[in-house]
Amino acid sequence: MEILAFGVQADEKPLIERAFRDHEDVRCLDVFLNEDTAPIAAGHEIVSTSVNADLGAAVLEILAAGGTRMVAQRSTGFNNVDLDTADRLGMTVARVSYYSPHSVAEFAWALAMAVNRRIVRASIRTRDFDFRLDGLMGRDLHGRTAGVLGTGKIGEAFARIAHGFGMRLLGWDVAENPACAELGMRYVAKDELLARSDLITLHVPLMAETRHLIDATALKAMRDDAILINSSRGGLIDTAALVGELRAGRFAGVGLDVYEAEAGLFFLDKSLEAVEDDTLARLVTFPNVLVTSHQAYYTEDAVGQIVGTTVRNVLDYREGRRSENVLVPRS
């Protein structure tokens, strides 16, 4: 029986087809799952979705009415899934609970270095044969302080790189990571971390408790010359408040791989359309801001692990097994 995979990127398609080849038939679509596209899944018992799929109640109802009984999400985050509705409909929902933390941590560092050393601006200038250094001055990160909000696997990987740079480490989390403590990380309250850090990076999941973790108050607590990096989830930052601080001339650099209203924008070509999102349009105009389109996870290693786990989740469903990746039905 054919599996329908929504939101498949061109680079991702051969990996998915190869991984499923000996197990299941799979059809890959580049369209994302939402209320308009959900009817396409009629007759498919299993669908696979990407991180920006809409798996709210309305979409799940359409899927269930068409015969879908299992959703295999190709991501770790599941804040886009109405788990209560899926449970009520008797649907199985599984995610990828783990993939290479280095993919995201390394990309977070790429953003940090790019905004600190003005790499994008320098590249644009040299394309025009403008080789001046005016406005390109950055700072040594050696000896400065990195604040890591969320010290799980990705936060730990980021901290190890920061330790290699010779940075002091501050951490904030609900539980301390012994591996980070061994690197010399000192756990402090969030307000202290924000006030003392030169570089702040976010690696926490998006939940009701963490939405707008970086709000107007948190932004004002940060140093005027701080660097802020978010490669986790867009909803962790109050973007409107961030734009307000940027307009006031604050922050040495901001690197965002995620955006709280990215659904319907990221992973799509909108270059020939009018930009309706005024906040995003304003955000990308700041010279000290770099926005990328949720690509931190996008390495051969990480995507390969994501696809491999998705195949195992489907096989587990077929054979009645349960793993730590299953979100619904709840144990």
Topology:
Layout: E1 2-5, H1 13-20, E2 25-28, E3 46-49, H2 57-65, E4 70-73, H3 83-88, E5 92-94, H4 101-116, H5 119-127, E6 145-149, H6 153-164, E7 168-172, H7 178-182, E8 186-187, H8 190-196, E9 199-202, H9 216-221, E10 227-230, H10 239-247, E11 253-256, H11 278-283, E12 289-291, H12 300-319, E13 326-328
Parallel strand pairs: 1-2, 1-3, 3-4, 4-5, 6-7, 6-9, 7-8, 9-10, 10-11, 11-12
Antiparallel strand pairs: 5-13
Helix pairs in contact: 1-12, 4-6
Could you describe the 3D structure shown?
One of its GO terms (molecular function) is D-lactate dehydrogenase (NAD+) activity. Belongs to the D-isomer specific 2-hydroxyacid dehydrogenase family. The two termini are 27 Å apart. The relative contact order is 0.14. Helices cover 34% and strands 15% of the residues. The protein contains 12 helices and 13 strands.
Which CATH-level-2 architecture of the largest domain? 3-Layer(aba) Sandwich
Instruction: Please summarize the sheet with the most strands.
Output: 7 strands, parallel
Helical residue percent?
Answer: 25-40%
CATH level 3 topology of the largest domain: Rossmann fold
Number of separate helices: 12
What structural class do the secondary elements suggest? alpha/beta
Arithmetic mean pLDDT: 96
CATH hierarchy class name of the largest domain: Alpha Beta
Q: Which spans have pLDDT < 50 for at least 5 consecutive residues? A: none
> What is the H/E string?
EHEEHEHEHHEHEHEHEHEHEHEHE
Number of strands: 13
Shape: globular
> How large is the radius of gyration?
21 Å
Largest beta sheet: what is the strand line-up? 8-7-6-9-10-11-12
Share in β-strands: 5-15%
Number of domains: 2
Enzyme class: oxidoreductase
Family: Belongs to the D-isomer specific 2-hydroxyacid dehydrogenase family.
GO molecular function: D-lactate dehydrogenase (NAD+) activity; NAD binding
Domain D-isomer specific 2-hydroxyacid dehydrogenase NAD-binding: 110-296
